[in-house]
Predict the structure.
Amino acid sequence: KTVEDHQKIDVINGIPICHRSVGTPSDPTILWIMGYGESMSVFDPVISSIPHFHHVLFDNRDMGNTKRFDEELPNASKYIAPDYRGEMPQFVYSLEDMADDAIGVLDHYGGTRKLAHIVGVS
Protein backbone atom coordinates (compact mmCIF):
# COMPACT_ATOMS: atom_id res chain seq x y z
CA LYS A 1 0.00 0.00 0.00
CA THR A 2 1.36 3.42 -0.95
CA VAL A 3 1.05 6.17 1.61
CA GLU A 4 1.22 9.84 0.64
CA ASP A 5 1.19 12.26 3.51
CA HIS A 6 0.20 15.86 3.13
CA GLN A 7 2.50 18.46 4.61
CA LYS A 8 2.30 18.61 8.35
CA ILE A 9 4.09 20.50 11.06
CA ASP A 10 5.43 18.80 14.18
CA VAL A 11 7.86 19.98 16.84
CA ILE A 12 11.10 18.21 15.98
CA ASN A 13 14.40 19.12 17.63
CA GLY A 14 12.57 21.80 19.61
CA ILE A 15 11.08 23.79 16.70
CA PRO A 16 8.07 23.44 14.35
CA ILE A 17 9.30 21.67 11.20
CA CYS A 18 7.19 21.17 8.08
CA HIS A 19 7.62 17.67 6.64
CA ARG A 20 5.93 14.90 4.69
CA SER A 21 6.53 11.44 3.32
CA VAL A 22 5.56 9.76 0.07
CA GLY A 23 5.62 6.03 -0.57
CA THR A 24 5.46 2.87 1.44
CA PRO A 25 7.23 3.05 4.82
CA SER A 26 8.49 -0.54 4.49
CA ASP A 27 10.40 0.37 1.30
CA PRO A 28 13.95 1.73 1.48
CA THR A 29 13.98 5.32 2.74
CA ILE A 30 15.39 8.37 0.95
CA LEU A 31 15.76 11.56 2.97
CA TRP A 32 15.62 14.58 0.66
CA ILE A 33 17.32 17.76 1.96
CA MET A 34 16.91 20.98 0.01
CA GLY A 35 19.46 23.74 0.53
CA TYR A 36 18.67 27.30 1.47
CA GLY A 37 16.42 29.23 -0.86
CA GLU A 38 13.87 26.56 -1.76
CA SER A 39 11.30 24.32 -0.09
CA MET A 40 10.90 20.56 -0.23
CA SER A 41 8.36 20.90 -3.06
CA VAL A 42 11.25 21.35 -5.52
CA PHE A 43 11.80 17.57 -5.26
CA ASP A 44 8.22 16.65 -6.25
CA PRO A 45 8.91 15.97 -9.96
CA VAL A 46 11.90 13.82 -9.05
CA ILE A 47 10.30 11.68 -6.34
CA SER A 48 7.28 10.98 -8.52
CA SER A 49 9.63 9.29 -10.99
CA ILE A 50 11.35 7.09 -8.38
CA PRO A 51 8.95 4.35 -7.24
CA HIS A 52 9.57 1.68 -4.61
CA PHE A 53 11.10 4.07 -2.08
CA HIS A 54 9.77 5.77 1.02
CA HIS A 55 10.57 9.45 0.38
CA VAL A 56 10.93 11.70 3.44
CA LEU A 57 11.07 15.43 2.85
CA PHE A 58 11.20 18.52 5.06
CA ASP A 59 11.72 22.27 4.91
CA ASN A 60 14.89 23.53 6.58
CA ARG A 61 14.77 26.26 9.21
CA ASP A 62 13.79 29.59 7.66
CA MET A 63 12.47 27.86 4.52
CA GLY A 64 8.98 26.90 3.34
CA ASN A 65 6.59 26.34 6.23
CA THR A 66 9.21 25.55 8.88
CA LYS A 67 9.88 28.04 11.69
CA ARG A 68 11.40 31.30 10.57
CA PHE A 69 13.97 33.27 12.51
CA ASP A 70 13.49 36.52 10.58
CA GLU A 71 14.72 38.80 13.35
CA GLU A 72 17.71 36.65 14.24
CA LEU A 73 20.75 35.19 12.49
CA PRO A 74 21.84 31.52 12.36
CA ASN A 75 24.37 30.40 14.97
CA ALA A 76 27.69 30.49 13.15
CA SER A 77 29.69 31.29 16.30
CA LYS A 78 31.78 28.14 15.92
CA TYR A 79 33.06 29.48 12.61
CA ILE A 80 33.42 33.21 13.35
CA ALA A 81 36.16 34.96 15.30
CA PRO A 82 35.34 37.39 18.10
CA ASP A 83 34.72 40.99 17.04
CA TYR A 84 37.15 43.84 17.76
CA ARG A 85 35.90 43.96 21.38
CA GLY A 86 36.61 40.26 21.85
CA GLU A 87 32.88 39.40 21.91
CA MET A 88 31.31 36.61 19.91
CA PRO A 89 28.36 37.53 17.68
CA GLN A 90 24.97 36.21 18.82
CA PHE A 91 23.24 33.68 16.57
CA VAL A 92 20.19 31.43 16.81
CA TYR A 93 21.20 28.06 15.31
CA SER A 94 24.14 26.20 13.80
CA LEU A 95 24.77 23.76 10.98
CA GLU A 96 24.80 21.04 13.64
CA ASP A 97 21.27 22.06 14.67
CA MET A 98 20.17 21.66 11.07
CA ALA A 99 21.77 18.21 10.88
CA ASP A 100 19.92 17.30 14.10
CA ASP A 101 16.69 18.48 12.43
CA ALA A 102 17.28 16.03 9.56
CA ILE A 103 17.89 13.15 12.00
CA GLY A 104 14.79 14.19 13.96
CA VAL A 105 12.66 14.05 10.82
CA LEU A 106 14.05 10.58 10.03
CA ASP A 107 13.31 9.51 13.61
CA HIS A 108 9.75 10.77 13.19
CA TYR A 109 9.27 8.30 10.32
CA GLY A 110 11.30 5.50 11.90
CA GLY A 111 14.09 6.00 9.38
CA THR A 112 17.03 5.78 11.78
CA ARG A 113 16.02 2.26 12.75
CA LYS A 114 17.10 1.19 9.27
CA LEU A 115 19.49 2.44 6.63
CA ALA A 116 18.44 5.56 4.75
CA HIS A 117 19.74 7.11 1.56
CA ILE A 118 20.32 10.86 1.77
CA VAL A 119 20.02 13.20 -1.20
CA GLY A 120 20.81 16.87 -0.78
CA VAL A 121 21.01 19.93 -2.97
CA SER A 122 22.96 23.04 -2.06
Q: What stands out?
A: The chain has a mean pLDDT of 83.
